[in-house]
Amino acid sequence: MKSATPKTIVLLGGGAREHAMAWKLTRDGATVHVLPGNGGIPNSHPDISATDFPAVQSFCEAHDVKLIVVGPEAPLAAGVTDYFAGSDIRVFGPSRAGAVLESSKVWSKNFMRRHGVATAMSWQYRSDQLDEARAKAAELDGQVVVKYDGLAAGKGVYVCSSIAEAEQALTDLQAEHTGWFSFLLEEKLTGPEISIIGITDGNRIRLLAPSQDHKQLLAGDKGPNTGGMGAYCPVPFADDNILAAIRTDIVDPTLLGLQSEPFDFKGFLYFGIMLSPQGPKLLEYNVRLGDPEAEVLLPALESSLLELIEATLDGNLAQTTVWQRPGYYVGVVLASGGYPAAKFPTGFPITGLDELHPNILAFHGATRQQGGQLVTSGGRVMVLVAHGQELEEAVQLVYSEVGKVNFQDAYIRSDIGQRPTPEIAFNQVR
Ligand code: AMP
Ligand code: GLY
């Protein structure tokens, strides 16, 4: 089922996830324009913002583009799919109503409840109910997670281990968000986390390989949370039993739930899951590919992403199959020194990319061109990805290459893909 005609498509976004998406869609036969893109993604258009829909529309009309693929959540939450509804330009990604699965923690928790999706117990509060939340946190001995109800770029979640920490989290929450807001208090779960990402038309889903992110800055899962310091796939301990439990307890009820909601959902759907002793529990939905998960999942995907996207939009997802390449993929983020603090220096020249082993993929995240020179422009500068027949082989290859890319104060986490194999006990207790 190869596309008959060459396709020109627009991809919205400008990080390493979008570089990986553009790379894959180009291999699948498309010409990909990336708005705004970055200093390393071919066909980037830095003057066009991904949320300036009239400018995106003019670009599409000028270049005869009939398909827009969306990388990050912001354009979806801002209604890019609704904006183009009724035009002859199709958007791969949910409408604003569907994007609320990610953009509101309260809404998505209620969705999980309504549809019997396995998740942590939780209590919902408004910003004028902090005292009640404090009392509940004390009752749970501070073993709670506080979640702000909105897109907070990874900054709205506070995982607490004591009453004092929970008190502090509620104080910080109040200080950081002005005006009226809602938040959740959740029971704190334990267990390894896994990312399950699929392509769905709202009725069926095609799952990509299970992957694992490394969200914390420092080795051993220590330090502050980041957007993700590296990822790998597939996950060796995610065996058929675990994947079957995830399917039954989380993925299938989600799809049944989507069918009963008054909106269509065509796009990527990301399940952030914790394998707790009580079984897999859903921590969050995202309505997009993960970053940095996409940077390993897309090289691992043998099937055409372009065909999967078109089949989804055409209502033909049932006719597709997802083929994976054998072996393991590991992606390590090269970050700017100081990230993820609010401010850190950027603008440093990047060198050494020409020296990378030809089998290494380098996806640019935060780079820009400045007077003919590639320089850093943000926190997660680049992701290097290696393949190996065994996970260890991919890990060794990527770490033998990361030192070749240089910029001032570059930081890499040293243990991507090297977590000890966890004990998963729930097969016995379920
Ligand atoms: P979220 O944005 O909801 O996925 O939360 C971000 C991170 O907070 C997750 O990746 C987990 O590491 C942690 N987290 C969220 N909810 C819980 C929970 N109920 N129990 C323990 N950790 C959690
Ligand atoms: N890697 C986590 C995320 O994309 O939200």
Labels describing this entry:
single chain; alpha+beta; Dna Ligase, domain 1; D-amino Acid Aminotransferase, Chain A, domain 1; 4 domains; 5-stranded antiparallel beta sheet; 4-stranded parallel beta sheet; 21 strands; about 30% helix; binds glycine
Task: Describe the 3D structure.
There is one protein chain. The protein is of the alpha+beta class and 430 residues long. The protein folds into four domains: 8-93, Rossmann fold (3-Layer(aba) Sandwich), CATH 3.40.50; 121-187, Dna Ligase, domain 1 (2-Layer Sandwich), CATH 3.30.1490.20; 192-319, D-amino Acid Aminotransferase, Chain A, domain 1; 328-404, Phosphoribosylglycinamide synthetase, C-terminal domain (Glycinamide Ribonucleotide Synthetase, Chain A, domain 4). 30% of the residues lie in helices and 26% in strands. It has 13 helices and 21 strands. It has helices spanning 16-27, 53-62, 74-77, 80-84, 96-103, 105-114, 130-139, 163-176, 240-260, 293-300, 305-314, 391-401, 426-429, and strands spanning 7-13, 30-36, 67-70, 90-92, 122-126, 144-148, 157-159, 182-187, 193-200, 205-207, 212-213, 216-218, 222-225, 230-233, 267-276, 279-286, 328-335, 361-364, 367-370, 373-376, 380-388. The strands form six sheets. A five-stranded antiparallel β-sheet has the order 11-14-17-21-18. A hairpin with a 2-residue loop joins strand 15 and strand 16. The structure holds adenosine monophosphate and glycine. Adenosine monophosphate is lined by residues 120, 145, 147, 157, 159, 186, 188-189, 193, 215, 272, 283-284.
